[in-house]
Amino acid sequence: MNIYTIVLFVHVIGAIGYFLGIGLWLFVLVGLRRTQRVEQVRALIHLNDLSGPFSAISVLLLLAAGLSLALTAWSLLTGWILVALISLILMVPTSAVLIVPRRRALVDQLAREAPEGALSEALKQRVHDPVLFTVIQTVAVLLLGLVFLMTTRPDLMSSLIVMVVALALGLASGVLVSRATRTRGQGVTTHANDMREPIG
Predict the structure, then answer these.
(1) CA–CA dist 49, 56 (Å, integer)
(2) Nearest-CA neighbor of 119 among 40, 192, 45?
(3) pLDDT per residue of the chain (200 residues) written in tens, 0 to 9
(4) Within the chain, how many helices (H) and strands (E) appear?
(5) Please, are residues 156 and 79 in contact by the beta-carbon 8 Å criterion?
């Protein structure tokens, strides 16, 4: 066993941890879109809070170990490494800028809600924020693109094409799923309102 093997192991652990963090976010967001009561939203947000430090540490391990491998065993000018590092460096802060304010707004709105009861319209809007789901979905697909680069090691042009395709697929799938779940949720709300209306 040498230093390269250990650093590579840390790099893989960081990637797995980041995947788990993003996967939990997707799980939480899907669950949020099915909630009907305030206490359900609180439970899911608390679950996401527990994963926050884990995801942050995983990203640091992924970046640090990846940069170390690129500088010692490879070269920063290697096509797939250059694309992977730039993609990761752009992806992490950009996703944070888009996610953190929306998550904070959701938590702030949640704090103004009653301890228990049905969701208000304001909280429903926060829960069904299409940007939040689309960003998380896109990050997940981009991570798959990064794993593809690490395992196949294509040239510069092929690496760029992979990440552009991953970005397009992530955005498209996020928008489609978000729109479908939002339409379904509006249909359920309309049906519930119709059931509550008195007959005659």
Answers:
(1) 12
(2) 40
(3) 788 889 989 988 998 998 888 888 888 888 888 888 888 888 888 888 877 788 889 989 988 998 888 888 888 888 899 999 899 889 988 988 998 888 888 888 887 777 778 888 888 888 888 888 899 889 999 999 999 998 899 999 999 999 999 999 999 988 887 777 666 555 544 444 444 455 44
(4) 6, 0
(5) yes
Q: Tokens in use for 110? A: 């949640």
Instruction: Give the distance, in angstroms, between the CA of residue 36 and the centroid of all CA atoms in the same chain.
Output: 23
- Closest alpha carbon to 89 in 135, 146, 166: 146
Place of tokens 């990050």: 139
| Residue 9 structure tokens | 């192991």
Q: Any idea how long the chain is?
A: 200
Global pTM reads 0.80
Q: Which residue has the tokens 């752009």?
A: 90
Amino acid at 145: G
